[in-house]
């Protein structure tokens, strides 16, 4: 289908999935293409009754899901992954239309989601407990004890707009692999591609009620706080993450929140490689990633050479129509988001920052901004930008910077480019963050790894093995 044909197509009316049935919502809202401005979907606004029905469907389905043996859950997930892989272009194109993400990135994200679901299938048959050596004490001698893992029951998953397919797969796949039922609430700004993903996964043959979808803000608090929910997995802002943490009571949670993308470039690094990676990972996905490169710290000895290389790379990045396969960076999620980033940059410049490159805005599209002469009190340094802007700051002594990151509210991931093993080990040992990526930026992620943050950046880890561990509970078995 051509771009013109897509633009003129009538909006798709999204339906909720509840207890194995598709349901229309009484109210909907428009989902617009941020590049073209046309309405591409009508997304449901789920009522409290819809939320109640979804929760009850999941409560009933958790028994059937828990009864499925691991090999059967694995078979269903492998089939689902194959179906997603077969529809990569369709789902990716929808994602590009509703989020403004470059089509090339949207297709890769969907391909990775299919691979991720395959990984979840493999983990479904590896859920293990632990033998406890009871003869370590006189009272335990002669007894047999094991810690065994069982599904938690009902998982609520709330996903964001910036990685709608990837981050839905990171919640849906492990929840089903562990034998749980799911209530899923996608972002109101990226509902259609997630709807297509759910349609596809359901074709694999999961029991009715295993996957339920609700939409909109009205139903959000209910599906988090309801006592029928056993686990909540959320990816999004720190503000909402804290609200969820306060509302869940005794439930366990996984919260993947924000960060400020610190990445170091030491004097012994491969400068050309570091500059290319930092430039591209500062603006990729229009900077809308929790681990986007935002604060780059460069040793004074190589600072000027690094800056020149970064600017050269930034100038080569192609911004444009998200549906053009030549485009490397599309739009932000909407014009409001682009204006917010534009204002943060303007504020920094008013406070003394120098814009080495100043991206211009056209609607929801914003070009790359590279700042220098910033200070830690500027919001572009201390707060998450979530846009295609980053700063470069020189340093001579790296230890105080490690300490400052450790003492800050954020702690998602950190990158460091160096050929010094001692410095790499020092970073790993002293920076309090969820991950330290050596000779990579803060944005590097492979889907099987344990990804997540500490402090205000979150609780728990994502990655099939690690999410399944969180979405199961331990039960002690003692044989006298």
UniProtKB/TrEMBL annotation:
PANTHER family: ALDEHYDE DEHYDROGENASE. Belongs to the aldehyde dehydrogenase family. It comes from the Bacteria. Pfam families: Aldedh. It comes from Variovorax rhizosphaerae. Gene3D superfamilies: Aldehyde Dehydrogenase, Chain A, domain 1, Aldehyde Dehydrogenase, Chain A, domain 2. Residues 22-474 form the Aldehyde dehydrogenase domain. Keywords: Oxidoreductase. This is Aldehyde dehydrogenase family protein.
């Amino acid at each position: 289908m051509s771009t013109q044909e897509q633009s003129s197509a009538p909006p798709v009316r999204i339906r909720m999935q509840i207890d194995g049935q598709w349901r229309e919502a009484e109210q909907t809202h428009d989902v617009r293409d941020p590049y073209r401005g046309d309405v591409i979907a009508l997304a449901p606004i789920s009522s409290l009754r819809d939320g109640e029905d979804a929760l009850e469907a999941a409560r009933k389905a958790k028994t059937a899901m828990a009864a499925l043996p691991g090999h059967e859950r694995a078979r269903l997930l492998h089939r689902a992954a194959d179906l997603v892989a077969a529809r990569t272009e369709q789902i990716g194109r929808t994602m590009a239309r509703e989020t403004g993400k470059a089509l090339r990135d949207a297709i890769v994200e969907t391909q990775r989601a299919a691979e991720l679901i395959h990984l979840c299938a493999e983990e479904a048959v590896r859920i293990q407990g632990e033998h406890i050596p009871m003869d370590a004490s006189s009272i335990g001698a002669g007894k047999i004890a094991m810690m065994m893992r069982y599904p938690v029951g009902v998982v609520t998953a709330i996903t964001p707009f910036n990685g709608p397919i990837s981050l839905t797969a990171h919640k849906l796949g492990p929840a089903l692999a562990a034998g749980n039922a799911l209530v899923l609430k996608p972002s109101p700004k990226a509902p259609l591609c997630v709807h297509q993903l759910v349609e596809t996964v359901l074709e694999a043959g999961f029991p009715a009620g295993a996957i339920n979808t609700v939409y909109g803000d009205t139903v959000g608090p209910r599906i988090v706080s309801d006592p029928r929910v056993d686990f909540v997995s959320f990816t999004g802002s720190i503000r909402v993450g804290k609200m969820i943490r306060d509302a869940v009571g005794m439930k366990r949670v996984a919260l993947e929140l924000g960060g400020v993308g610190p990445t170091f470039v030491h004097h012994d690094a491969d400068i050309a490689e570091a500059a290319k990676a930092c430039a591209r990972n500062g603006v990729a996905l229009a900077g809308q990633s929790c681990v986007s490169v935002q604060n780059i710290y460069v040793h004074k000895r190589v600072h000027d050479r690094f800056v020149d290389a970064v600017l050269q790379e930034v100038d080569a990045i192609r911004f444009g129509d998200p549906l053009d396969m030549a485009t490397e960076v599309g739009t932000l999620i909407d014009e409001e988001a682009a204006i917010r980033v534009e204002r943060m940059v303007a504020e920094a410049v008013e406070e003394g920052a120098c814009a080495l490159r100043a991206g211009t805005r056209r609607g929801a599209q914003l070009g790359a901004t590279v700042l220098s002469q910033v200070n830690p009190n500027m919001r572009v340094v201390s707060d998450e930008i979530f846009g295609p802007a980053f700063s470069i700051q020189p340093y001579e002594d790296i230890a105080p910077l490690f300490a400052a990151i450790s003492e800050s509210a954020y702690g998602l991931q950190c990158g460091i480019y160096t050929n010094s093993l001692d410095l790499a080990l020092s970073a790993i040992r002293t920076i309090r963050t969820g991950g330290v990526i050596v000779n990579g930026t803060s944005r590097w992620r492979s889907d099987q790894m344990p990804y997540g943050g500490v402090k205000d950046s979150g609780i728990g880890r994502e990655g099939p093995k690690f999410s399944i561990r969180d979405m199961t509970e331990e039960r002690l078995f003692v044989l006298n």
